[in-house]
Amino acid sequence: MKKGKIDVVLGLQWGDEGKGKIVDFLTPDYDIVARWNGGPNAGHTLIFGDNKLVLHTVPSGVLGKQLNLIGAGVVIDPTSLKREVDDILKFQMNLKDLILIAEEASIILPVSKLLDKEFDSLLVLGTTGRGIGPTYANHALRIGLLVRDIYKQDFKNRVLKITNYFNAYFDLEEEAIDSDTIEEFFRDCDWLIKNFEIVSSSSFVNSALSQGKIILAEGAQGALLDTRFGTYPYVTSSPCITGGVLTGLGVGPHAIDRVYGVFKAYCTRVGNGPMPGEMNGKKAKHICEVGQEFGATTGRARRPGWLDLVALKYAIEINGVTHPVMTKADVLDGLDEIQTISEYQFSQNGSGVIHTNVFRPDADILSEVRPIMNKFPSWQNLKSVKDKKDLPIQFQQYRSFIEEKIGVPLKFVSNGPDRTEIIPL
Ligand code: IMP
Predict the structure, then answer these.
(1) Is the CB of 126 under 6 A from ligand 1?
(2) Of 406, 425, 286, 303, whose CA–CA distance to 12 is shortest?
């Protein structure tokens, strides 16, 4: 039998690139959609007709006929998952048969959400406050709890022991994790194992591959928020790059075929941390309003910036992207001029001013660099285009410049939020 394969979809910027829509668009060609990192810090928005669904933990294939795996690398908040499932049930029945959960995935404890706020007041990262960092940290400390632990007799005791420990250590407000919160958490853990099939991520994925199944691996956040190769310390706590698919699902590298890298025609960042080319003024306002640049998870306003090709080339390289996808190109419709960054300039002690197109994700260096900008005329009404032959010449110029800088041809451009608004290139 023909062996199956995995194609990956991931973000190439600081998250919010529109990955949910791309996964939703690609899904009909796949048997399984699998999430491999992050947790309810993600917000993947699907728009179909007059309907909108925001997913946080469940893979974006849930509206199709595919199986959806919440993989080993994901951190799950049972209470937030329950709310999300209630929302999905308005559009899709029988979720029990469509969603599988990895027994190796981590559980976000109520106390981890408090710790998140505690640490954020120290580090000022602007986290989503969903308990993501402390859950991955507890896992590395070997005191975390996994989905498979919910079945064990000492589960409740272990949760209480960890809760009491952090409570005492950090002198956290006791009432914030009162007995009602803990009881709700236990009820939702119970709901989780009763309502979904719990599987071993690695056995499920490897056996699906040996049966010839094709899998779409859906990433959360973006490469520049990767815990190691992102703009540390202004990053999330999980791997967000292709390497994370292997550890997040439990598969070997040869299973991976295409890597779809999704980036916006401009940049945004939510939370703190440097972003060369950050915009202010009228154009920034236009982009935020037309692009609806408000966090799908926290509602925070996103910070807009011009497309950074130094960072994009780096993200293409570290992920081995074969299929770049540009999203939200229609948001730039009607601007008199648009810009990209193709080089950074910075001063180095003793060496004078240096120009470079090599991205170094050091947050201190990035906050010092001066971006060298390239200017382009913008286009009108890209939104109404249905076929690549009708793409405006100004867009074609912008696209060619990007392709020359990143070294890989673009495969799709998305020109609107609806799942039908996408043009193969
Ligand atoms: P955390 O993932 O909640 O720990 O937040 C760490 C940083 O990553 C913060 O700056 C967040 O705003 C950012 N972040 C986390 N998830 C996302 C996402 O899905 N989109 C955009 N930014 C995110």
Answers:
(1) yes
(2) 406
Q: Using CA of residue 99, residue 240, residue 150, residue 43, what is the dihedral sign?
A: negative
Which of 74, 128, 227, 268 most suits a substitution to test ligand 1, by most atoms within 8 Å of the C-beta? Answer: 128
Q: Would you list the DSSP string of 223-244?
A: GGG-TTTSSTTSS-SS--STHH
Q: What share of the chain is helix, strand, coil (3-state, %, to 5)?
A: 40, 25, 40
**Segment 286-327, tens digit of pLDDT:** 999 999 999 878 888 899 999 999 999 999 999 999 999 999
User: How much distance in Å is there from the Cα of 341 to the middle of ligand 1?
Assistant: 23
- The first and second tokens of residue 329, run together, are 């190109």
Catalytic residue among 7, 24, 44, 308: 44
Q: Each residue of 252-296: pLDDT tens digit?
A: 999 999 999 999 999 999 989 999 999 998 999 999 999 999 987
Instruction: Assess contact for 107 and 76: CB atoms under 8 A.
Output: yes
